[in-house]
Design brief:
Layout: E1 7-10, H1 20-23, H2 26-32, E2 37-40, H3 43-53, E3 63-66, H4 82-85, E4 90-93, H5 106-114, E5 119-121, H6 127-135, E6 142-147, H7 152-169, E7 172-176, H8 182-192, E8 198-203, E9 211-216, H9 217-220, E10 232-237
Parallel strand pairs: 1-4, 1-5, 2-3, 2-4, 6-7
Antiparallel strand pairs: 7-10, 8-9, 8-10
Amino acid sequence: MTSAGKLYLIPAPLGDETPIEAVIPTGTLNSLRGIRHFVVEELRTARRYLSKAGIGVPIDSLTFFELNEHTPVTQDISPYLQAAIEGQDVGLLSEAGVPAVADPGARLVLLAHQKNIEVVPLTGPSSLLLALMASGLNGQCFAFAGYLPVKSPERQQQLRMLEKRSAAERQTQLFIEAPYRNDALLADILTTCRPGTLLCIAADITQPGAFIKTMPVSEWKKTTVDIRKRPCIFLLLAT
């Protein structure tokens, strides 16, 4: 009987400007070089990443499946793990950072558990943890709220709720936004949150132009910061 393959969770760099070997550990790169079947968020960038990582075989010899925000929840993704069932390893590759965290790959990980396929998380950059590390905010009690509502009234309501929870539990709140909506989100934070609430903005983490700064909301109101079209993590801690 053929033993089952494993599902490897493969982190990716947080941006194109940083050399892969600068942020992806050697052990992770060595592990992915033995994999021939990949589930990826975006085919083009995955192929580019694997080429730069020195996969060791022609990219066209690899098998790819796409799993992203456009994959219908009703779609059967069990064929994506067929290779693992047959004894070959499968790699889950995020667009940036670690798979299955703020990432559609969580569906595949859960399915692997249901099929008794071993899940192996590999080491690599997580924008959420890097931002929390660099923020100076509470790293012992924190929560990730994902994307906030797109419309301003609903977003402001969510911000008030997160700020209230942060104050009650001394809990750092982390959230993200599509880069082109960063300015609108920041405007709502400065309008909605209390002056003494601490806000950290962490943009382009691990990139040459990285910007990470923590200040009270009252100080951010006096500051001009360019975060449009830059990947950002926002962190709040109510004092």
